[in-house]
Amino acid sequence: MNWSTMGPQLLTAIGETLYMVSVTMIIAGLVGLFFGVALYVTRPGNLYASRVVNTAINLVVNFVRPIPFIILLAALGPLTDSVIGTRLGQNAAIFTMSIAAVFAVARIVEQNLMSVDPGVVEAARSMGVSRPKIITTVILPEALGPLVLGYTFLVIGVTDMSAMAGAIGAGGLGDFALRLGYQRFNDEVTWAAVAVIIVLVQLVQFVGNSMARKIMRR
Amino acid sequence: MTSTVTDSPLSRPGEDAEVIVRFENATKTFVTGKGKGRREVTAVEDVSLNIRRGEIYGVIGYSGAGKSTLVRMINGLEPATSGKIQVDGHQVDGRTEDQLAPVRRDIGMIFQQFNLFTSRTVAGNVEYPLIRAGWDKAKRKARVEELLQFVGLTERAGNYPEQLSGGQKQRVGIARALAAQPKILLADESTSALDPDTTQEVLGLLRRANREFGITVVLITHEMDVVRSIADRVAVMDSGRVIEEGPTARIFSAPQTETARRFVGTVSHDAPNAEELAHLSQHSRGCLVVVDVRDGVDVGSVLSSAAARGVNFRIVFGGVSVLQKQSFGSLTLDLAGEPQAVEETIAALGELTTVKEVSA
Ligand SMILES: Nc1ncnc2c1ncn2[C@@H]1O[C@H](COP(=O)(O)OP(=O)(O)OP(=O)(O)O)[C@@H](O)[C@H]1O
Ligand SMILES: [Mg+2]
Q1: Within a domain: B207
Q2: Is residue B261 part of a domain?
Q3: Does any ligand 1 atom lie closer than 6 A to the CB of residue B65?
Q4: What is the pLDDT of residue B274?
Q5: Is residue B58 scored above 70 in pLDDT?
Q6: Could you report the per-residue pLDDT of A121-130, keeping only the tens digit for each?
Q7: Which residues on neighbouring strands pair with residue B47, listed in sequence order?
Q8: Which of A56, A127, B181, B359 sits a CA distance of 20 to 30 A from A153?
Q9: 8 Å CB contact of A127 and B113
Q10: Is A167 a residue whose pLDDT tops 70?
Q11: How far away, in angstroms, is B192 Cα from ligand 2 center?
Q12: Burial state string for B183-199 with b = 16 or more CB within 10 A and e = fewer than 16
């Protein structure tokens, strides 16, 4: 492998991947948190119990989540075009990745919030705390440890999505490995991309795990 | 930690004390399932009662009798299906969750499973209601210190709930419930997860909160000892209804209903049951009588004059306890001797109190 030409290209690819993954995690992390909380609080017997809202959100989540990302990339083309102005490039990729990730985040947030002891929520209600404050100052802090683990897990999923972004010209490590490695029968290049991804994921996992451990005092 | 408060019954809220919680024909029906699986459970049925400001009010009854539902109706955690509930002059029934908030701020609650915030320290748990109530930082700090001192956990301020024993957790629960200076404290099986010593500790705190801060305490329990040692008045619940209500001493000395009698029987087993009676009759040398004992009933003097007339008496069963400065109980006597003298002794006892002849 020729490092003098490949080296800079690998660095660019790393930068592109980091950019796509982090922007997607921020957008989908926040929007997904909102929908995850909505899924949780509208469950029967919960703070804002509503069969209609709960069923509606569930329906959308269950509908979108099983669609393979590469197909979603193509299927959402027209929507991406009208929102971003193009179907190609990093921003187009981030748009589609965010949509796909929102539903995954929502489900994981909902599941982690279910670990909160309902008795604790009841204690807050008995104090006369308003429902929005119960969500922000009781439910989310009580579930913070599991939430951090959930988000860490999602980073891996989003990294996986970003590898397919090369298909719409967004670059990144996946594109690097396929175009410069696989298609040119240059296995070393492919393996370099694999190694970088492994290191990145391990790093995220390590940071996430130690944060969660600290929060949960274990 | 256990404090023995020796106040006279006279200092307790009396008949004329102001009512702080009023139930009027309150009913709560739960509906579960839908369609063919639809079921209705009436957890509380047509309950009317008054809780007086400053008293400790006990609620007893078997599991599923509706005690928790009744008490949770006070702060609207369970909205009434029908009837009226008034707390400190405010109507509770008919309010939405958001409208209930101001009423709830005057009502503290402690739970069987403690329900402490695991993400906050001991001090953080106690401080939380104060933050929500908008207290400034300096005032919060002083109040938290005061409360931790009250429950004896000053050293544990920085600990997290999982580092505490059950009794300590419940003490944090009490400090947290008292933080925002409520007028009423609801305690649902607050000692059921604790051992006897720790139970006494927690009850001591509830009693002190009542005596020192004048907080009205509503206490659910299935442990009769708890009610007996702390409650001024008691409601006995059965199948959603309050079947008996009154001063604790009255419920214990003269229970009117079978359920109340069975509960009282669990603490003061002073009259023999059928089996015990059969055994006693076998070994009886004369006449078996069960005599009710209460304050002012001088069984002793009757018996000593009986003894002077040759009546030989043995106490074969019984017990006398003191509850809120009043004695009550019963003794089973075996009276042997001249039939005439025995009969006269029974007559003399009958003039003082209730006497039941249980064998010839
Ligand atoms: N949320 C609910 N949904 C349906 N039924 C309920 C609900 N809460 C209570 N019940 C029913 O209402 C009745 C009274 O329950 P409650 O919890 O008030 O009894 P309890 O006297 O507190 O019993 P325990 O001593 O076991 O705590 C029971 O039959 C119970 O199954
Ligand atoms: Mg109960």
Answers
A1: yes
A2: yes
A3: yes
A4: 75
A5: yes
A6: 999 999 999 9
A7: B26
A8: A56
A9: no
A10: yes
A11: 11
A12: bbbbbbbbbebbeeebb
